Amino acid sequence: MPPKGSNSITVRDIAARAGVSVSTVSRVLSGPEKAAPISEETQKRVREVCEELKFLPDIHYARLQERKSYIAALMVPRTRPDSPGPFFSDETIGLFLSTLEEALCDHGYSILIQGVDAEYEKSGRQSIILRNNSADGLLIWDAFKDPNTITELNREKRPSICVAFPYDTANNYIVPDNRQGALDMTNHLLGLGHRRIAYVSGGMGELVDSLREEGYRTAMKDADCEPLEFVGHYTVRGGRKCAEDILRDHKGVTAIFAANDMMAQGALEAARTAGRRVPEDLSVAGFDGSTHSELATPPLTTGRLPMAETGRLAAEHLLRMIGEDRPEPVRLTLPIEIIPRASTGPAPK
Hints:
This protein is an alpha/beta fold and about 350 residues long.
């Protein structure tokens, strides 16, 4: 049966009024012509009749003809018990999402956000979303824990891109250069004369953690300095506890580098409680570039993650891949900007 518009006028009604076949009306309303060409005059007449009858074509019908959903699915992790807070309370995901949504919307796309836990991943529903045309492509933000899941998605005919968080098995990714960013931050502290620099990692056991740890260790080794590492679980409380242990048991430490701004905030609190001046007695640096870092007392030196740029590029490359029969892979590693602020200074003599 020919599709109806929102006012119950059918394609058959449009065809009768315009003096053309039902199939001609369908082809005009379905977007780019894929069969025999339709004259400009006929297209104009069909559209004038649609306007005259206030016909609003069924968008689902039009998309079915194109074999596109005009939806991009974003896979995100459901909040786990060991997470520092609800997923969408994270400022970095908010910045990424706002940029991504705007860029996709400019091309007529909407976003489907799907929370993923172990049960969902095991079910394989992420692949079904692509196979049943629920989405034209996937963006994956740290959603899957089994590397084989990414390998399976690599084989699907629709594109999938890992964003923000790296996977060893990903064919397509847009991620910050976590290793180089941590190396640059450690070198910033070394350049200020610090030699005893403690590192507070997230300790989640994921690739992003190991890359940041690797950057820190490489910089310390190159400077012939001994690494000193603690685990703060990406929370203010964890950062405070690590800093308390450092200040009590490792009195030679003159700088603390935390793998996110929340743990660095906890380190600042521990320093104040211990009567240590920042940065005169102790330098503290974070990572993320969140608003918290700028509003801290003193303002935190941090590494700003390129989340807005990631959102823009994710939309750009996903749309490109959707539109190509044999798309070139996207493999982008974006630089992390080191922002020196008042929480770091020369090592005390």
